[in-house]
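Notes on consecutive records. When two proteins share a document, each keeps its own sequence and its own token line. Never mix them. Below: protein one.
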Amino acid sequence: MRELAKVLPEGEWKMLQLPIFIQVDRRLGRGTARVTGKTEVKVVSHFLNKRGRNDELELIIYRPEVAVLRRKLPTTTQYLFLGA
């Protein structure tokens, strides 16, 4: 949790929804996942060293990035499987 506190200004702590869901949706294609939410995207972008706009509401990530994210934030992230 300390790592998360370093990433976000204190005013944004309450806006972060935990766990951060890594949405695995077959419609995105094999090995592709999505993270949604402005604060969640900001946190994930930081931990994956991905550059982007700070106001993005969705971030597409790929299998190697999911592995890095789960390694860095094992108890803060959770898989969410979507689609049939």
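Protein two starts on the next line and is unrelated to protein one.
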Amino acid sequence: MQEIHMPEDKKQRIIRAAMEHFAKNGYKKATVDEIIAAAGISKGLIFHYFGNKKKLFLYLYEFAYGLVYDRIVKSFEQADLFDRIRESERIKLAVVNEYPYVLDFLMSVRKETDEQLQEAITQVKVDRFPPWKENFLPGLDASRLREGIDLEKVIKIISWATDGLLKEHKDGFVLEEVFAEMDEYLAQMRKAFYKEEYQ
């Protein structure tokens, strides 16, 4: 990722403001003027350090995706599927608590229609982040699943449930409360998908 040598407090204000405005408005409708007003910094500062709106967007994408990806991938140690997901979701919740618009921003990136921008986003992803599967699946003990249960489908179902829970609590949440609720859902899914001796 491009090194940005500027005071950390100003960089954080730009990151947070840009994340929110791109998440809410998309790349085309979000303006640098809105971002600098929200960040409380000068327009010249954005252009001096980031160059232009596209470079700011791509920097932000790499920062946001890397924030989630790097922290979660480092947590993939448990052989138990639900323990591994529980830990990764705990980290994801902590990231959202730190940067409330990070997941909204990453979801909005998927909807961008500008072909050149999408090509640049794809290139960042290819250059910097190996596919999730390459990191998540190795070491998982799939033998704990009931006969006939497909591991990848179970992962997808759990992902839908945890993502849905985050969306439900998007407008402010107490980290411990959401994590406790998530634990309840994971416990129910463990009963549904695991052999009795592993529940």
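For the record: DSSP finds ten helices and no strands in the chain.
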